[in-house]
Amino acid sequence: MIETLLKQSSGPLTRELVQSPGSFGLGNVPTRLTPSSTTTSICGYCATGCQLKLHLDEEGNAINLSPQANYPVNLGMACPKGWQALDPLTATDRGTVPLLRDPATGRRQPVDWNTAIATFTDRLKGIQQTHGRDAAAFLSTGQIPFEEMAFLGLLWKSGMGFLHGDANTRQCMATAVTAYKQSFGFDAPPYTYADFEESDVIILSGANLAIAHPILWQRIMRNKRSPEIIVIDPRATETAQAATVHLPIKPKGDLALYYALAHCIIRDGRIDYDAIKNTEGFDDFAAFVQHRTPEQAAHQTGLEAATIEKVARLVSEPGKRVSWWWTMGINQSYEGVRAAQAMINLALITGNIGKPGTGANSITGQCNAMGSRLFSNTTSLVGGHDFANEDHRNKVSVGLGIPIEQITSDPSLAYDEILRAAEDGKIKALWVVATNPFHSWINSGRLSALREKLDFLVVQDMYHSTESAEIADLYLPAAGWGEKTGCLINSERRLAPIRPVRKAPGQALTDFRIFRLLAQSWGCGGMFQQWTDPEAAFKLLRDLTQGRPCDITGIRDYDHLDESGGIQWPYPESDADPHPSAERRLFESGQFYHPDGKARLLFSAPAPLPEPTDDEFSFTLLTGRGTSSQWHTQTRTGKSDILRKLYPAQAYVEIHPRDARRLGILNNQVITVRSRRGSMKASAYLAPTVQPGQLFLPMHYPEVNRLTHPSFDKHSRQPNYKACAARLEV
Ligand SMILES: Nc1nc2c(c(=O)[nH]1)N[C@H]1C(S)=C(S)[C@@H](COP(=O)(O)OP(=O)(O)OC[C@H]3O[C@@H](n4cnc5c(=O)[nH]c(N)nc54)[C@H](O)[C@@H]3O)O[C@H]1N2
Ligand SMILES: Nc1nc2c(c(=O)[nH]1)N[C@H]1C(S)=C(S)[C@@H](COP(=O)(O)OP(=O)(O)OC[C@H]3O[C@@H](n4cnc5c(=O)[nH]c(N)nc54)[C@H](O)[C@@H]3O)O[C@H]1N2
Ligand code: SF4
Ligand SMILES: [Mo]
C-alpha cells in the first residue's frame, strides 16, 4: 500500500520517506540482527527499566521474549506486562494510515502522509499567523525515547516558533522534579536500586510497589539485612500487607506525620550534626516543628501519638541505614512538593543521604519519565538546562546549531493552564503525542466542552481507537515500543536503548520520523539536518549535557550502553568511571547542586483538603493502579488476551464491608459512584483493604476521571488525583 502511495507522490516529502536511513519508520525492518538471533531492549512500560531478551526469527522479527538474566536492574525477572510486551503490537486497532476528519460528514477518512503532513502544517501555520505563538500547545509523554522527546520540544519551540508544551509527566513526576530542584538545586533522584537491598529501614510512602513496580518489590525481597519495611498508605495494599509496619494514614495526612517525626527526632537529638552542616535552614525548620507534636498530628494523620513516636525512633536509629521512597500517594497532591520535601528533610537531618541503603528517593512512573524530565524542552531547557539562564541558552544554541533568537527564555504554561487556555479559546490547537488525556486528565468530563472550543486537535498514537484519537481532527499513526530505537532513562538514572524487533504496521511511522517530516514541511528541516536518526540525535544531546549534573559525555554510543548493562548518569567524559556498570549514587561528598553546595530544608504548614467530605459526599475517593497487569488507559495492556484475563473488564470500586453493610450493598453489585463533577457505574468489591469512609477506584477505567477534583499543587501544578469527596448510590 505504501509503495503505491510513494509511486503516486513525489517531491521532498517522498524522498524523505523513501530515504529513511536506519532501522525505524517506514519499512523499518529490524537491523543489526543475525538470523535466528536475540537482541535486547528495555521494557516500554514502567520506569523500573527491566531489560528483555527478544528471540528473533530469520527475518529479525521477535517471536518471543524472556527477561534478561544478567541485567543489573531486573536480574532475570519481569512482571506480566513485560512478559507480554509484544502482544499490543499486533492489535487490530493499530493505526496503519493517517486519518483526517471530513468537516462535511464529521467522519475520519484515511489520507496519505503527504496530505496529513501538509494539513498539519497549513492548519498550524494559519493559527500561528492569525493568533500568535501562544495559540497552540503540545501535550506529550514519558513513554517515548528521549531523542524523540527532545526532537518534539525543539521542533515545536525553536523550529515552529510556538511557546507552550507540556507532558503527562506533569500528572506524575512534576512534584518530585520541583521538590528536588528546590531542595538539591537540580532534579536528581539520588539512589541506585542496590539501595533497596542495602537498607535497614525502608519507608515506602504512597508507593504500592508490589503492584506498580513489582520488580523493585522483588529487589526489596532480596535484602538480606532483615529490614524494617514501613508502608505509609491509607489502604492496606499488597505492599502494606507484606510490610513490617503499615501506617494507615488519613489521606493527605503525610505532611503532619513527617513534621511530627522531625519534631521527635530533633527533640531527642537523634540528628546527624555533620550532615546538617551541608544544609541551609535547619534552625528555622527546628523552630517550625517545635510545636508539631505527635499528639497534635494524631488528628490529621489518624495515627496514635505512640505509633508516631515509635516510627520516629525506627527512622533515626543511629548506625542504621534508612531510605525514604515515595510515588504517587505523595506526588499527586495539592501539597505534594512540601510532602516530598518533608521526607527529604528527614533524610537530610538524619544523615541518610549519599550512603548505601539511604536516600530521599522518588520512584518514577513511566519508562522514560526521567528522560522527559531532562530532555523534553518543556519545563527545563533541553539537556538539564534553564530557559531563563542566558548562558544555558547560548550553550544550547551553539551545541545544536539553533539561532539564539529561536531559543525562548519564556516559560511554557503548565498542563492545566494549557487546558484552561483552550477552554477560554486562547489556545486553538493541541498536538497530543503518546498520551491519552481524554481518559487520564483530572476532571475529564470538562474536556468534551474543551474539544468543542478547539479548532484543531492532532493525536499521534499507536492506536486510532484511544479516547483522544477518536475525537481528533487529524490522527497520525505511530510506531511503538518494539518497532523503533532510542534511549530510555529509568528511575535510578540508568540510560539504555530500546531496539526495533518488529515492523510497524501499514504506514505507521516512528515519532522520530514524523517529526522529521513535519520539520521539513514547516520549512525548518535545516535546523534538524543532523537529526538523521535517533542515535545521531543521542550524540548531539549527549554532548549538550557537558558540565551539567546529568553529564553523560562519557557514553560512546548505544553499543556502549548495551555492553555496560546501561549506564547511570552522571557519566562525564572527564571523569569516566572505568566500570560504567558500577552502581552510582549521588551526594556521596555531601555537596548538593545549589551554588553554596548546601541542600535546602523547605517546609510550610499543612493546608486543609481542597474538597473535604461532608453530609452529601461522605466518602473520600482514592484512585491509583489496580493490578500489575493493567497499564494506565489500557490502550496497550488491554490488547493482550493474557493480561486481560488477569483483571476485571468492568470498573470496580473497593468499599469497606462495614460501609457496604450499612448501605445494603452486596459484593459485585453494580452501583453508582458520584462526585460533584460526575458519576460512573462500578461493581462493588467489598474489601477491608480500604478504610471505612474511603473508596478506591483503579484509574484504568475511562470514567474514573470524571469524578476527580481539579486541584493542583501550587509549586508543581501536579493534579491532586488521590483525594476527593464522593458518595455511593444504590
Ligand atoms: N501495573 C502498573 N504499573 C504501573 C503503572 C500502571 O498503570 N500499571 N503506572 C506507572 C506510573 S506512570 C506510575 S506514576 C506509577 C505509580 O505507582 P504508585 O504511586 O505506587 O501507584 P498508585 O496506585 O497511583 O498510588 C500509590 C498509593 O498511594 C496511596 N495513597 C493515596 N493517597 C495517599 C496519601 O494521601 N498518602 C499516602 N502516603 N498514600 C496515598 C494509594 O492508596 C496507592 O496505594 O506506577 C507505574 N507502574
Ligand atoms: N485518577 C487518576 N488519574 C491518573 C492517575 C491516577 O493515579 N489517578 N495517574 C496519572 C499518571 S501518574 C500518569 S503517568 C497518567 C498516564 O496517562 P496517559 O499518558 O494518558 O496514559 P497511557 O495509557 O499511558 O497513554 C499513553 C498513550 O501513548 C500511546 N503510545 C504508546 N507508545 C507510543 C509511541 O511510541 N508513540 C506514540 N505516538 N504513542 C504511543 C498509547 O497507545 C497511549 O494511548 O495518568 C494520570 N492519571
Ligand atoms: S516491572 Fe516495569 S519495566 Fe519491569 S517488566 Fe514490569 S512493566 Fe516492564
Ligand atoms: Mo505516572
Automatic annotation (TrEMBL):
<keyword id="KW-0534">Nitrate assimilation</keyword>
<keyword id="KW-0560">Oxidoreductase</keyword>
<protein>
    <submittedName>
        <fullName>Molybdopterin-dependent oxidoreductase</fullName>
    </submittedName>
</protein>
<dbReference type="GO" id="GO:0051539">
    <property type="term" value="F:4 iron, 4 sulfur cluster binding"/>
</dbReference>
<keyword id="KW-0500">Molybdenum</keyword>
<dbReference type="InterPro" id="IPR006656">
    <property type="entry name" value="Mopterin_OxRdtase"/>
</dbReference>
<keyword id="KW-0479">Metal-binding</keyword>
<dbReference type="Pfam" id="PF04879">
    <property type="entry name" value="Molybdop_Fe4S4"/>
</dbReference>
<dbReference type="GO" id="GO:0043546">
    <property type="term" value="F:molybdopterin cofactor binding"/>
</dbReference>
<dbReference type="GO" id="GO:0042128">
    <property type="term" value="P:nitrate assimilation"/>
</dbReference>
<dbReference type="GO" id="GO:0046872">
    <property type="term" value="F:metal ion binding"/>
</dbReference>
<keyword id="KW-0411">Iron-sulfur</keyword>
<comment type="similarity">
    <text>Belongs to the prokaryotic molybdopterin-containing oxidoreductase family. NasA/NapA/NarB subfamily.</text>
</comment>
<dbReference type="Pfam" id="PF01568">
    <property type="entry name" value="Molydop_binding"/>
</dbReference>
<dbReference type="InterPro" id="IPR006657">
    <property type="entry name" value="MoPterin_dinucl-bd_dom"/>
</dbReference>
<dbReference type="InterPro" id="IPR009010">
    <property type="entry name" value="Asp_de-COase-like_dom_sf"/>
</dbReference>
<keyword id="KW-0408">Iron</keyword>
<dbReference type="InterPro" id="IPR050123">
    <property type="entry name" value="Prok_molybdopt-oxidoreductase"/>
</dbReference>
<keyword id="KW-0004">4Fe-4S</keyword>
<dbReference type="Pfam" id="PF00384">
    <property type="entry name" value="Molybdopterin"/>
</dbReference>
<dbReference type="InterPro" id="IPR041957">
    <property type="entry name" value="CT_Nitrate-R-NapA-like"/>
</dbReference>
<dbReference type="GO" id="GO:0016020">
    <property type="term" value="C:membrane"/>
</dbReference>
<dbReference type="GO" id="GO:0045333">
    <property type="term" value="P:cellular respiration"/>
</dbReference>
<dbReference type="GO" id="GO:0016491">
    <property type="term" value="F:oxidoreductase activity"/>
</dbReference>
<feature type="domain" description="4Fe-4S Mo/W bis-MGD-type">
    <location>
        <begin position="36"/>
        <end position="93"/>
    </location>
</feature>
<dbReference type="InterPro" id="IPR006963">
    <property type="entry name" value="Mopterin_OxRdtase_4Fe-4S_dom"/>
</dbReference>
